[in-house]
Every structure is written in structure tokens, then in C-alpha cells.
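F.,

This is the one I mentioned.
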């Protein structure tokens, strides 16, 4: 098997929930050894969110494959000593505890840098390690609200949150890329670094278009449901069989083709209400009614066939079952299996297809599954491991 980019890199992660585990799972995909530190007993509280994946929690199954689980009660000194010994061998320490918790345990970057100058330390938090919001609780929905995401998402009548944990995902992605950058920099300088990733700043970056659209007090983009806020027609339209077709036009050439070949009303292209995107956007209610009226005599499949023939971008409005069975994912062999405490489960391969190596797709660990092996690796003998287990330190 060809070597992976992060083979030989050890990541220790004091992680829970989504943002940090999503980051470290991607490091594991690239070959890193990821040791997930969990509380004895229940482990990461995300294990208990639901039991939808054959008995596993859906969030946990998504972000925790290819890891080793080490249970440590960090309130007990022997367990804390074991963690210090483990970090001494690591390349990366990631943590998403509340700001200040790392310092209380002796894991602030300043303390660690003096002992381990090559260590990369990545802290993920809601608002960052300083500033007036530093100590505020920061759940995904709250960050969606603070970052302005809710102000542009939903219907004109009501804001809606993202259907997935978009703030956690954003923070996890920036932590992942920042750690890769830090490891590259370490190759040049020989020194580690500190990374401070905030959920607010991560999602605010993803709000770049609305921020600039509303630059210097201009009107922000409106909430427009599944339609595009500023381009029209671009969004969902109902066909005569009650199914929805998603379509999008990008320019005036496509608008003329759409009128001619899809709506079969070529004169509509020159209607002064609709002869530019700005005017179509201004009169979108009228145009929507005309499009739906034209589609009323067609099934969704017939609409799609016309759109395809006209080379107008379109998509099905899929549910989760359709995504699992998506013909494009199947044709590209993007779904595989990974092991888990409840047996094999389906798993999507990471999105980028590499010609030089295969992604690591190892099992999802049970709570504390690797505790004994890791402690023995650190020099603990069987009696010491048994004693730690007896006192509830592991």
C-alpha cells in the first residue's frame, strides 16, 4: 500500500461533539494516528445523541472512524500524568474544551511549548481565546445566529437554521487546514505553533457574499427559501405531478434558451419585466407564476428532459435515501464500509480522489477500546493498568 501523507503523525485530541472530531477524522483519513481522549464510562457525549446508525449515534459514526479511544479521568493525577506522557510523543494536540480549561490542566500552549517545541497545538472554541465573548457558551445554532447566517437563511417570514451543524463543520474544516499548514511550516522551521480557531470567525468567513452584498450599510440579501437571493429564476419550481425541480440560470443567453426551449414561450425573453436579471429579480413573483403555469402540464421528469436538452442546470430534490443510492456516487465507487462496535456500516469516502494513496478507513472505536494498549505503550505494566481501572482513572 502506498504511504499516506500523514503516516507517522500522532494526534492527541481532547475532543467532544462535532467540530474537533470532524477535524481529527480528516487527519486520520490521511493516515494520522488519532488518539481520542474520552471520559471513562460514557465517553464523548455525542455517543448518546441518538441510536440511528445501527445502534450508534449518527453524529458520532460520521466523525470518529479510524481513531483510537483512550479513556482518562483528567481530574485524577495518574490519568493526567498519562496524558502528559502521551502528549510528549505527539505531533499535534487538539482540544475543544472551554477556554481556560487547558491551562488549569497544564496544557496551555505556553507551558507545552517550553517542553515540546515541535508540538502543534490547536484550540477550537466558540469565540476564541480572548475578547468579550470568550466565555460565552457556543452551540452550533447560537453561532449560526451570531454570524448572521440565520438572517439570510429561511423564508421572508421566518429564519431557518442549517439542517446540519454548519458552524461546527466550518470550524472543523479550518482547524484541519490550519493543522496541515502548521505541519508544513514545521518542516521548514523545526518549530510547532499554536492555532486558535473560533466557530464564529469560521462561519463569518463563509458569510463573505452576504457581508459584501450589504457593504457599508446597503440592504442585505433577503431570505428567499430555497431560491437564490439575487439571481432569478434560480431555485425550486413545482411540476404538474407535484414534484419539485431545482433549476438555475446564470446569464442572459441561458434566459433566452430557457424561454424558447423549456417554457416554449420565446417572446417572454424580451418582456421588459424580465429582460435582465435585475428586472427578473424585481418581478420574481410574476415570473414564478408564469413558470409554474408552463410546468403544470408536465411531469417533473419531462421538465428535466427539456432542461437537459437546453443545457440548463438542474437537479433533483433528493432525500437521504436518494443520496445513499445516488447513481453518481455508485458509479464513482464513493461508498464503502467501516467497522464499528455494532458491525460494519456504510461510509462515504472523503471527497477528493487521490491517485497517489488510498484513504484510511478504519473502524469507529468503542469507548476506551484502546486504553490498555496505549498505556502499555507508554510503559505501564498490567498491574498499573489494573490499578488505574480499579480507581476509575481510566
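My design for it:
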Amino acid at each position: 500500500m502506498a504511504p499516506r501523507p500523514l503516516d507517522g503523525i500522532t494526534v492527541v485530541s481532547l475532543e467532544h461533539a462535532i467540530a474537533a472530531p470532524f477535524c481529527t477524522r480528516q487527519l486520520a483519513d490521511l493516515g494520522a494516528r488519532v488518539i481520542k481522549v474520552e471520559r471513562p464510562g460514557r465517553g464523548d457525549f455525542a455517543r448518546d445523541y441518538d441510536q440511528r446508525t445501527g445502534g450508534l449515534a449518527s453524529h458520532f459514526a460520521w466523525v470518529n472512524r479510524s481513531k483510537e479511544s483512550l479513556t482518562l479521568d483528567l481530574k485524577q493525577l495518574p490519568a493526567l500524568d498519562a496524558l502528559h506522557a502521551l502528549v510528549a510523543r505527539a505531533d499535534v494536540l487538539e482540544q475543544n474544551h472551554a477556554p481556560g480549561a487547558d491551562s488549569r490542566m497544564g496544557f496551555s500552549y505556553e507551558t507545552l511549548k517550553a517542553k515540546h517545541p515541535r508540538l502543534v497545538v490547536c484550540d477550537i472554541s466558540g469565540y476564541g481565546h480572548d475578547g468579550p465573548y470568550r466565555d460565552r457558551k457556543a452551540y452550533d445554532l447560537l453561532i449560526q445566529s451570531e454570524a448572521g447566517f440565520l438572517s439570510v437563511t429561511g423564508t421572508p417570514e421566518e429564519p431557518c437554521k442549517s439542517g446540519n451543524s454548519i458552524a461546527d463543520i466550518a470550524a472543523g474544516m479550518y482547524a484541519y487546514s490550519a493543522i496541515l499548514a502548521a505541519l508544513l511550516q514545521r518542516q521548514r522551521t523545526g518549530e510547532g505553533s499554536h492555532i486558535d480557531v473560533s466557530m464564529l470567525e469560521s462561519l463569518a468567513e463563509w458569510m463573505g457574499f452576504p457581508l459584501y452584498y450589504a457593504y457599508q450599510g446597503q440592504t442585505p440579501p433577503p431570505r428567499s427559501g430555497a431560491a437564490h437571493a439575487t439571481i432569478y429564476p434560480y431555485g425550486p419550481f413545482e411540476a404538474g405531478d407535484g414534484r419539485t425541480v431545482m433549476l438555475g440560470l446564470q446569464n442572459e443567453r441561458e434566459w433566452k434558451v430557457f424561454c424558447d426551449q423549456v417554457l416554449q414561450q420565446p417572446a417572454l425573453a424580451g418582456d421588459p419585466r424580465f429582460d435582465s436579471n435585475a428586472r427578473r429579480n424585481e418581478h420574481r413573483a410574476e415570473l414564478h407564476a408564469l413558470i409554474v403555469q408552463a410546468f403544470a402540464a408536465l411531469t417533473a421528469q419531462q421538465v428535466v428532459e427539456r432542461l437537459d436538452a437546453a443545457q440548463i442546470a438542474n437537479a433533483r430534490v433528493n432525500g437521504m435515501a436518494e443520496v445513499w443510492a445516488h447513481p453518481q456516487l455508485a458509479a464513482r465507487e464513493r461508498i464503502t464500509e467501516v467497522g464499528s462496535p455494532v458491525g460494519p456500516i456504510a461510509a462515504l469516502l472523503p471527497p477528493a480522489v487521490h491517485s497517489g494513496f488510498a484513504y484510511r478507513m478504519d473502524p469507529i472505536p468503542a469507548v476506551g477500546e484502546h486504553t490498555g494498549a496505549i498505556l502499555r505503550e507508554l510503559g505501564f505494566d498490567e498491574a498499573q493498568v489494573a490499578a488505574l481501572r480499579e480507581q476509575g482513572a481510566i
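DSSP finds 18 helices and eleven strands in the chain.

Talk soon.
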